[in-house]
Structure formats: structure tokens, C-alpha cells
Design a protein that fits this description.
The chain has 2 domains: 42 residues, no CATH class; 105 residues, no CATH class. It is built from 3 helices and 7 strands; from the N terminus they run ββββββαβαα. It has a 4-stranded antiparallel beta sheet with strand order 4-5-6-7, covered by helices on one side. Strands 1-2-3 form a 3-stranded antiparallel beta sheet, with no helix packed on it. The chain is globular, with a radius of gyration of 18 Å.
């Protein structure tokens, strides 16, 4: 969900009530609940957050807008991110000079080129950041941690 003040990322899991709120001015990230999302917010589906990047115009949020299932590991789906959106935290570009606008446009073009290259994979239920050998040699405490905590 997008408002002029915040980005709200809502999990689609059954029973999930937590919503990630990202303040577009302070860049502060907090957890809130669904009822705090304003009804006026523009809503669109995404499949994940790739991250943030700071360019000339300010901070941008990079989200995954399309995905393709490429396989499974131990019955866990592995996805390839195939399309992205780059969302500006700033509401306008009026604070930029013409040269800064041009530089920002070039950097956005470069970023879009990098994102168009194959190689962005993810899983929401399996740790693909560690090898199977490494996972086998980790402590039980590590195995019980959520993917986010790892």
C-alpha cells in the first residue's frame, strides 16, 4: 500500500496481521497492524522487497513485481524475480537541478539494466543463502531461527 507519507507492506499469509510501515520522510521502518493502513492508500501486489538504494534524488525502494517458479528444494519453492519496480521515497523531484535530474535518470537507467539481468532468486520458506553442507553443520538454535533472523 502506498500513501504520500508511507509505504505499507502487508504479508499475504493467512492470519498475518502485521504490516511493515516504511516512513517516506524519515526512512524509519516499523511494524504496525492492517487497521492502521489508510483506506486511501493505493494498493498493488508485490512478491517481496529487494532492498533500498540511495541515488541523487534520494532513497528508492526496490520491490519484486513478478516472479517465476524455477524449482524446489525439499518441497520448498524457489522463485526467480523477473520484474521489479523502483519506488521513490520522495513525492516530487522539484528539489533537484536539471543536472541532478539528468544524473538521477542515468542512475535509474543503470539500475533498471542491472535488474533486467538474470540471477535474482529467492525462497520465502527455505534458506538459499547457505549451502546444504553449511546448514547441516549449524547449531539447532540456528536451525530454529526464522529466515529473517539468519
Amino acid at each position: 500500500h502506498i500513501t504520500p507519507e508511507k509505504f505499507y507492506v502487508e504479508a499475504c499469509d493467512d492470519g498475518a496481521d502485521d504490516v511493515l510501515a516504511i516512513d517516506r520522510v524519515s526512512t524509519e521502518v516499523t511494524l504496525t497492524v492492517k487497521k492502521d493502513v489508510p483506506p486511501s492508500a493505493v494498493t498493488r501486489p508485490i512478491f517481496g522487497i529487494l532492498g533500498t538504494i540511495r541515488l541523487v534524488a534520494g532513497t528508492y525502494l526496490i520491490v519484486i513485481t513478478k516472479k517465476k517458479k524455477v524449482g524446489e528444494i525439499f518441497s520448498h519453492a524457489i522463485w526467480k524475480a523477473t520484474d521489479f519496480d523502483i519506488l521513490s521515497y520522495k513525492k516530487t523531484m522539484l528539489h533537484l537541478t536539471d543536472i541532478q535530474l539528468q544524473d538521477n535518470k542515468v542512475f535509474l537507467s543503470m539500475l533498471n539494466h542491472v535488474l533486467s539481468v538474470d540471477g535474482f532468486y529467492f525462497s520465502t520458506t527455505y534458506d538459499i543463502t547457505h549451502t546444504l553442507q553449511r546448514l547441516a553443520n549449524t547449531s539447532p538454535e540456528f536451525q530454529e531461527m526464522s529466515l529473517l533472523e539468519r
